[in-house]
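Long-time lurker, finally posting.

We've been working with MOR1B protein (Chloroceryle aenea) and I want a structural starting point before designing mutants. I don't trust myself to interpret raw outputs, so I'm hoping someone here can both generate the structure tokens and explain anything notable. Sequence follows.
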Amino acid sequence: IGRSSVLTCPHSSNITLVTWKISLKVGGLCTLAYSTDQKTDSTNCSDSMNWKLRTDWEHVLEIQRVGIAHEGNYTCEIAAEKGNFQKTHHLTVLVPPRLILYCDGHSNPVCKAVAGKPAAQISWAPEDKATYREDHHSNGTVTVLSHFTEHSTSGTNATCIVSHPAGNQSKSIVC
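Top reply, 14 upvotes:
Generated this for you. Predicted structure of MOR1B protein:
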């Protein structure tokens, strides 16, 4: 999320037309077309999706500042002298969660992995009893909340470990 993503088409010589058909999870269909006479056309596409000009590959799609709204299927169709070709990319956006660790009113550590996509996994060191809850948000992100419930940890260092495809994090606390 927040970075640029570059999607490529099949490479072919003597191309006459390139069309990107983009089916977003939310928001419908958008198309970008490019013909050899360098005419371009865009229908229902956001300004963040456009052709990326590269000398080695002329028909690359760049998505700037990727967000959750960009998730979907991106199909490139090429019409060339040797035939028609297509390639589909399935774009899934990862959102790293924000890790928050604090002590509750009973001196138990509480760990929150806030607004991650997909939901993060929380574990504790030392391993002990814990409860878990997931709160799903309308934008597709998930907050995971874990209470470390072993009462004998008072004064002991507890470490919350958050595992996520966008990167792992850990923090320690003494309650």
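Before you design anything, note these points.
The two ends are 34 Å apart (CA to CA).
The longest strand covers residues 15-24.
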